[in-house]
Amino acid sequence: MAVKDVKREVVISREFKEYVRDHIPDPGLDESIKTLTPEKIEKTIKAVLPEKLSARIKAVLETCIHCGLCSEACQWYLSNDKDPTYAPVAKMRMTIWEMIKRNRKVDAEFIKQCARIVFTECNICHRCSLYCPYGLDITFIIGMVRRICFLLGVIPQRQIDQAEAHMATLNQVWLSENDWIDSVQWQEEEVGANFKDLRIPIDKEGAEVIWYPLGAEPKNGPYHIERLAKIMMVAGVDWTVPGRDVWDSSSMSMFVRDFVTMQRIVRGLYENAARLRVKTMMLTE
Amino acid sequence: MDFFKDPTLYNLVRGPLVYIAFIVFIGGSIYRIKTFIDLVKKDKTIMPFINLKSTVRSLFHWMIPFNTVNWRRRPVVTIVTFLFHIGLVFTPIFLLSHNILWRESWGISWWTLPEWIADIMTLVVIFCCVFFFLRRVFAPEVRFVTFDSDYLMLVVSLLPFLTGFLAYHQMLLPHKTMVILHILFGELMLIAIPFTRLFHMFYFFLTRSFMSSQFALWKTRDW
Fold it and tell me: What is the predicted ipTM?
C-alpha cells in the first residue's frame, strides 16, 4: 500500500537562510504577535537589554570568539544531523546578537522566530557551558531572550498555560488550597484500611521533614501521596505536608523567566518551612 | 615606496609609536578590567558565589591540553589552539631580536629562545592562522556564526608573525621596509587588544572563574 506523500510545509527564516523548520501552528506564538507594535517591542527589549549591559551579558557577548566548540554539547544539534542552526552559539547569533546589532529595533515576526528558538529548541541544560573553553553562560543569555518573549507575551501555548496556572494559584495544576488538603486527607483515608497507624500530618509544627510534591501528584497521580506516606511510616520519619500555599515545588515560571512568580514560589516554600520550624525540605523530582 | 627608506618613519615606529602602543595596551586593559569588575560588583548574584578554589582548579583544568572532555573530543582543534596560543604569546616575549631591542632602549632583557626554535614557532602560528581561516570557511557550525570581525581578528594576529618571518629571512620586500611593516603591525595588534574580542586573553580568567564557581555551587564536575 502506497503511503500518500504529504508535502512538508516549511518555514524559512527571512534573516537566516539556513534556518529551515517545519511549520507548526501554535496560538501562543501566531496569535500573540498580532498585538505587538514596534514601539512596544523596542521598549521591552530595552528593559531587558539596556544600553549599559549587565556584567553577565557583557561577559558573554564580548568574550565569545565564535569558535563553535559549544555545538557538540547540544542535544538539539546532535539529534538534528549537526544542523548548524541548532548550535548554542547559533541560537545566540539568531536572537540576542541580532537584537543588539539592530539596536533593539526588530519586528513581531522576528520575535516569533526568537520565541521558537529559545522555547522549543533549547532545554536550558547548561551543557554548552561545560563545553565552552571560556565557560560562558550561554544559557543565561537564552533565558534573557525568553524573558523578552515572556514580557511580550509570545510563548508557546502549553508553556504559557502552565506559567499562568502558577501566577494564579502558585501551582501548575489550578488546584486550590482546599483541594490540596482534600487530596491529602482522601489518600490518608484510602490507606487507612490497610495500615492502622498511617497518618499524613498536615501542618505539624516542629516536624523533622516537610514534603513538597509536584503539582501533578495530587492532581493526576494521588497514589504518589499514599505511597510516600507508607515509606515515611515504615522509615519512621517525623514528617509533615504544608496545609497552606505554597505546596507545589515545581516552577513553570522559571522556564519563561517570570521573576515575580518565581520569587513568590520560592518564598512561599521557605515561609511554610519556617512557620512549621522543620529542619529539612524534601521535594519531589 | 620611497617613504619607507626615510629614516624618520623608522624612528617614528621604533620610538613614539612603541610607547603609544604599550600605553594603550596596558592602560586600556587595566581600564577595561577595572570597569568590568566594577560592573560585576553591581550584580549581587556574582561576587558572593565566587569560589577561589574551584576557580584555580578550573583554570588549570582548561589550560592543560586534552584534560577536559571537549579538548579530547576535538583533538585537532585542541592541538592547533594550544600551539597557536603558545606561539602567539611566548615567541614575541622570548625572541632574541626583541630582547636586543629592549636591552638597547631600556637596558632590560631575559632568557631568549634559540633562533631556529623561534622560527619554527612563527611558522606554526602562521599555519594555525591558516587552519582557523579554513575552519571558519568550511566548518558549517563555525561559518554560520562568523562575521567580518572574526576574519579581521585573524588577520590582525597573523600579520606581525608573517612580516616578522619575512623580515628575518629577507624575503619579498627590502629588509628595512619589512621591518617597519612588522613593527607597525605588531603595534597595531597591541593597540587592538583592548578594543576588540582579542581581549578574551583577560576575560578568559574572569569568565572561567564565574562559571567554575557556578559548577561548585551546583556540585557539578568541571568537564
Answer: 0.87
